[in-house]
Amino acid sequence: MPTDPLTLGQQLVAVLEGGRRTSTYKLAVMVALLDLAVESVPDDPSAEVPIDLDDLTDRVMAQYWTQLRPLSEKDHVTLRQSRDGRGVVFDALVTLREHCSTPSLREMPIESAKLAAPEAYSVAHTKVKKNLVRYPLHLLQQVGTGSHECFLYDDAWMGKASTRAIADHGNRLVLFAGVCHTLARLAPLVKPAFQLAWVDDVRHMNRDILDDGPDIADHLFGTERVSLTRPAGILAEHFGNDCFYCNAHLRTSRHVDHVLPWSRVGIDGLANLVLACPSCNTSKSDVLPAPAYVIRALDRGQDVIDALAGEIRWPSQYGRVEAASHGLYSTQPDTTPIWLGAKHIQPLKRVDFGRWDVEL
Ligand SMILES: [Zn+2]
């Protein structure tokens, strides 16, 4: 039996409400787990699913990476993510950033930093992974006081920063039977709630510097997070300067659209990016596109996308787009709104992403 969504949903809400957090790390871990669940949906909804701890660590690091950039070009203020402004995870990323000679973090996704400074990345990664196992992964399911019941994965072996213990457990955690499928199904509801709590925590942790209330939600999770100038250039050069959705020629105003909405899957890789006219981009917003669009984006070809991404030193993430498409469309209910084109939204029709013959 897959896990009951209502019960799991209540447990996740309890994680959100479980007392004051001293840092945002539990929230980052939970958002990373939700994204990984969407990309790992098994064919059998009731299956156990292993989550690789290296992957999980990469995802947590990627979330904090863009959040390290200063609030504005002028003041160089970096927002605190823990009450005392310190923490192994954030400090490791600051050190990694010092190894990367880039003028702006918005111009350099962490995957590019990994290529530019592999040793520094590896050092940071090891520190972050051990810390995640010791604290947020170990404590995530402790809601309320007293003894706790694991509802996502077994955390009994966690709680110490030991490379040996991690290796002994296969460098992974295992989502209990049915949990992955249910997490993926709940992700569209739960992920925004965790991000809202994250914004709220950061606001509390930085009260002294945020009195005028700049839009930190946008700073942490908005479109300002990353500069898509380089992907836009290479997409126009290779695929033409036209809207991917309606084919309109793009003259003065050109948007870069995340085919699978960033809010859903957090994928900035080139495989998930297309050029769009303002009208299509605005009307599509955070709605899931018709599966045929995703298939057309993937049909540009992994070799082509990987090569173009390499040219601009940008991540491709082709495999992630494939995996997330499968997870998103196979777990959402039939009533889910689907974007078919400008101002044309209708409920989801099922597609099988294993087959490539789906027409609009
Ligand atoms: Zn268009």
Q: If you had to describe this structure to a student in words, what would you say it looks like?
A:
There is one protein chain. With 360 residues, the protein is mostly helical. It is built from 16 helices and seven strands. The strands form three sheets. A three-stranded mixed beta sheet has the order 5-6-7. The C terminus is likely disordered. The site of zinc ion has 8 residues, from helix 13. One of its GO terms (molecular function) is endonuclease activity. This is HNH endonuclease.
Q: What number is the mean pLDDT?
A: 88
- Number of helical segments with 4 or more residues: 16
How many domains, as an integer?
2
Secondary structure class reads mainly alpha
- Backbone CA Rg: 20 Å
The succession of helices and strands, N to C, reads HHEHHHHHHEHHHEHEHEHHHEE
* Amino- and carboxy-terminal Cα gap: 34 Å
Question: What composes the largest sheet?
Answer: 3 strands, mixed
Query: Shape from CA axes?
Result: globular
Q: If strands are numbered along the chain, what order do they take across the biggest sheet?
A: 5-6-7
How many β-strands, per DSSP?
7
Low-confidence stretches: 355-360
Helix content: 40-55%
**Ligand catalogue:** zinc ion
- Range of strand content: 5-15%
